[in-house]
Amino acid sequence: RRLACGDVEGRLDAIFGRVRAIQAKSGRFDMLLCVGNFFGSTSEAEWAEYRTGAKKAPIPTYVLGANNHDTLSYFPDVSGCELAENITYLGRRGVYSGCSGLQIAYLSGTEAQQQPAPAHSFSAKDVAELKMSLLSTPNFRGVDILLTSPWPRDVGTFANSAGEIDTKKCGSKLVSDLAASLKPRYHFAALEKAYYERLPYRNHMVLQETPQHVTRFIALADVGNTSKKKYLYAFSIVPMSSMDPAELVKQPQDVTENPYRKLKKEAPKSKAMLSAEEESTCQFFFDLNKHQGKKRPSDGKERGDSQPKQAKKPSQPTGPCWFCLASPEVEKHLVVSIGTHCYLALAKGGLSPDHVLILPIGHYQSVVDLSSEVLEEVTKYKAALKEFFRSKGKRYVLFERNYRSQHLQLQVIPVPLDLCTSEDIKEAFITQAQEQHIELLEIPEHSDIAQVAQPGMPYFYVELDTGEKLFHRIRGRFPLQFGREVLASEALLAQPQRADWRQCAAQRPEEEAQARAFRREFEPFDFSLRD
Predict the structure, then answer these.
(1) What element of type H or E holds 424?
(2) How many domains does the chain have?
(3) Cβ contacts of 375 within 8 Å, gap of 6 or more
């Protein structure tokens, strides 16, 4: 159990009094980590009582060094030393390793604006040497905690607002580079007299790199500030070295893209080159700074294309298609709703009588190929089916297999709410995928399939009505009935005999009766009847 604190500014009685009060109420904490200015311009009288032992810090306290010339004299040894009983100066830069295995990387001072760097500043060389000391460690995965006084530049990219602080101008680019390389689980900073707890960000590229732990950046205000901004942060942390790897890399639902990834890409490029090159590349993730985690716009904008935003036209099937609505092969008695761009049909040989398909009227192979208008109507059908199934005490599971198929079929299967949770469903899919050596990865809730798969890429994709998603890029053979097999398994619907649709096909009169019943029940939720 740790405490982290912002700028103390010499208010030692105030911070230690607050710590005593917290410990009296909540129990003992192991250490206090102080970032920002520990000493202020009027610290001497109060500090003398602690330096001489007249007063004692109630908890082991670790502080960063000077951020200005005026307070340099408080730090006699640049490599770190005990300043008073229970108060330790960590040093100019380095790594503190606790007996529990906890690793704390630290960098004192502010970024140097001149060379040679003043004693209260750090240079690019300081950052490079700190990085090298850790990155050269075998099997380095990151540090538990990073302490810096300045904020990292651009930390607000893809994230929640930092209020009055402009994160594109404030802070240090060198600290951003350090944080990107060291991948701390917690990063604390101060100096801006503001409290900001950023949404956690990931340290890997989804579907391109092995999942890694997330980072939480927390900036703390100054002690005793009159605005009552938070300056003390309590947290519990188990050392990375002691954690189960699967537990360590769990991704919270509000995780965002790494704010420094763009900075690292920009480094060798001019801004002109960047705008020309990145416009033409495939955009895998939203700029969450613009979208604030909301759902993807349905008007075709922001799709990451550099071409003029023309509507995609459906391709022509290479042969007879069972799902193009105009095709004579379509079993139209199974159709239960027709929109402008999509239609809804009962699945032939469905897992249940209300197992349905969302299908584009025109010929599109996969979700990735859909135009914005068709995608918008797919979203409408999802929302209508969610409301419909929830009214019947069910949640839906949707999956798509873009492999050995020529027309998009979004399979939508309802599962009783009291039968299993969304976590049970995800676990069933992931467990059975692992048994068959299929890598099924969770993708961010605010992302959609078009952000992680390019046109023509074979894939399998699962979506819950909560917005949670799983994705597998198919690189070789793939079991055609995998989605049905998981849902029909004992872990979920417990109807393994229905895994193969050919064993479930009903006679036409029965199918017609099921379609009539579904149309009647779905009618109050069917937007196509109102639009």
Answers:
(1) helix 422-435
(2) 2
(3) 298, 367
pTM confidence score:
0.55
Residue 467 DSSP one-character state: S
CATH at 497: 3.30.428.10
User: What letter would DSSP give residue 43?
Assistant: -
Residue 9 belongs to domain with CATH number: 3.60.21.10
- The parts of the chain modelled with pLDDT lower than 50 are 265, 267-310
C-alpha span between 259 and 263 (Å, rounded) = 8
Going by C-alpha positions, the residue among 453, 493, 465, 334 that lies closest to residue 399 is: 465
The DSSP secondary-structure symbol of 184 reads -
Q: In the predicted model, what is the mean pLDDT of the chain?
A: 86
8 A C-beta contact, residue 72 and residue 41 = no
**Which residue, 445, 398, 28, is CA-closest to 199?**
445
Among 199, 214, 249, give the residue marking a domain's end: 249
> Where does 71-199 have alpha helices with state H?
124-135, 173-182
Whether the upstream peptide bond of residue 353 has omega within 30° of 0, thus cis, is no
**82 and 173 fall within a common domain:** yes
Question: 186-229 pLDDT, tens per residue?
Answer: 999 999 999 999 999 999 877 767 889 999 999 999 999 999 99
Pair 302, 351: CB distance under 8 Å:
no
Half-sphere exposure of 343 (CA within 13 A, CB side): 21
Q: Are 354 and 518 in contact (CB under 8 A)?
A: yes
Task: Say how far apart CA 144 and CA 215 lie, in whole Å.
Answer: 9
* pLDDT for residue 376: 93
Q: What is the pLDDT of residue 292?
A: 34
Tell me what pLDDT residue 320 has: 66
Please enumerate in sequence order all residues whose Cβ is within 8 A of that of 483, keeping only pairs 6 or more positions apart, or say none.
399, 401, 411, 460, 462
CA atoms within 13 A on the CB side of 39: 27
Q: What is the pLDDT of residue 273?
A: 36
Q: How far is CA 1 from CA 87, 149, 470, in A?
A: 18, 21, 34
The residue segments making up the domain with residue 431 are 332-525
Domain ends where: 233, 249, 265?
A: 249
